[in-house]
Task: structure prediction
Amino acid sequence: MSFEHAENTHSTHSAPNTHQDDDTAMALKIVVAGGFGAGKTTLVGAVSDIRPLRTEETLSEAGQGVDDTAGVARKATSTVAMDFGRITIHAGLTLYLFGTPGQDRFWFLWDELSEGALAAVVLADTRRLEDCFAAVDYFERRRIPFVVAVNCFPGARTYAAHDVSDALDLDGGTPVVLCDARDRDSGKDVLICTVEYAGRMHTARLLDSVG
Result:
């Protein structure tokens, strides 16, 4: 297993303090989930301001009967624990990104990685859209706000956001955005959308609780 370490070691339970002088500085935890090969590691690495931490194993013949590589035949490695990155959106707002492993046999890690998260990004690959059903169901059941980000792979058929929403049977209002996980600006736009949506959802729930 290869580990690429970020600047510091952080707990997966919650985002660390940013130690900024601004008393209004916030550090928020975002989970990046989705199916096997959807681009989670790529997204975290593309947007991170620091060298991302990755826990990857090379795919081997022993895993051929376990990992479904249909549609992602060129994929040579797979995350087996987590990805970690950090991005400062603007002065006073830093996001700590925790990428989940995509294979079924590593789903037991999701509870640990999602603890204390403000929201999640569910990466979807339209060539294997069914692979993100489990992530959608996971965050809906735990009432963790999430955005579906469709990773537009070269050569893959393009679908409108509302078509993806219908196919996934998403709750009304759940955002679906198109992105390129390799592009920093595109990934940053996804994260901004996620934070804004989570803010609206948490505010609405707070108002309901006091109403």
In short: The chain has five helices and eight strands.
